[in-house]
Amino acid sequence: MRCVGRCAPRRTGWRRRRRCWRRFGSPAAYDAAMSDHPPIPGGPDEITAAWLTTALREWGVLTERSRVFAVSIEALTERAGVNGQTFRLRLKYQGEPGPATMVAKLPASHPSARGVAAFQHWYERETRFYLELAPDSPLRVPEPYFAAFEGERTLLLLEDLGRLRQVDQVAGCMVAEAEAALDAAAGMHARWWGDEVIVDHPWLPLTTVGLDRARPVHGAFRRAWEAVRERVAEEAHPVLDRAVEAYPALLERISEGPLTLLHGDYRLDNVFFDGSEGQPGVVAFDWQFACRGRGTYDIAYFLGLDLEPSLRRQHEDALLLRYYERLREEGVTGYTLDACHRDYATSLLLSFAVFAIGAAGPPASERMGVVHEVGLERLAAAIAERDPDIFGL
Known about the structure:
The structure is a single chain. This protein has 393 residues and is of the alpha+beta class. It has 2 domains: 3-159, Phosphorylase Kinase, domain 1; 175-391, Alpha-Beta Complex (Aminoglycoside 3'-phosphotransferase, Chain: A, domain 2). It is built from 13 helices and 10 strands. It has helices at residues 19-22, 27-33, 49-58, 111-120, 122-133, 175-192, 214-228, 237-245, 247-253, 296-306, 309-329, 337-360, 366-384; strands at residues 3-5, 67-75, 84-94, 101-107, 144-150, 153-159, 260-262, 271-274, 281-284, 291-293.
């Protein structure tokens, strides 16, 4: 097994060092100790009470005096994604209690989706994020109870956040929610801004697609643009026609320093809002697209997709300024507001590429079809309304 891990609860403070490796002294000793671990379940029917008992004991969620004696599993389909399957587990224990519920995340059921995920290392990236970077990141994430991947097999057992509030991405969010999301992202971006630590993680690519994969993704974007062009407002065509041809250069732009850790898929479908402390705190999940790049990529992705166009039009500049000022408050220097606006414009184009590729193929579900169409419309509007010169095409 290449990587299995469990991190301490965020609410009590995660350790700066990786707990799973601390127990064994080194990554090599850790891997050797894990070589006889039970196989990663290949589907929900293999997540049994006995398997859960072993896994949760090994990672400190349960003591030897506790065991899972019953588990029921239900698919979470309301906002099912394209690249994985999620299930809610309801557990019953003998001995000391553990989490009453948790969410299991498994690879996509369709072979083609799993193939794309393997090509982009999405499962490895998400697992390693929880294991290696999440303990040091100020942006809240679900508490991981177990994380493992081996080849195309992967399993995450995560804190069930169903008690928190989620906003419908199709309907869009309010300004206060956008402010909370940007504040949370700014804190994470500032934490990793220019930090050489993230360079030491070879699994963390430059941009969501990886510069080394730019050529095949460029071809996919070109084909997707041909398929969706007539579904996009004509006002955006001149800029997008040029953006398609310049796609590799656009990726290179946001791969130049200063770099930080990016969520990569930062949108309403992947965040919860927690108002329990008197303000709309943000919890982000689905880290398959974690990467390195300019922080404004996460911001353009969120604002371009999650604000209804008339609301974005009124508040976009103020929100971008708010993000920039939060970076400065967190200690970021040497980054100008003009550069922030240019990076934002470039990131709108790259965000459009993601949604064009998604919209060009058959939708994974009726809702995802709507999400892609609404995303295309909103991103195209955001692009068309900006001065074409700012895109540098």
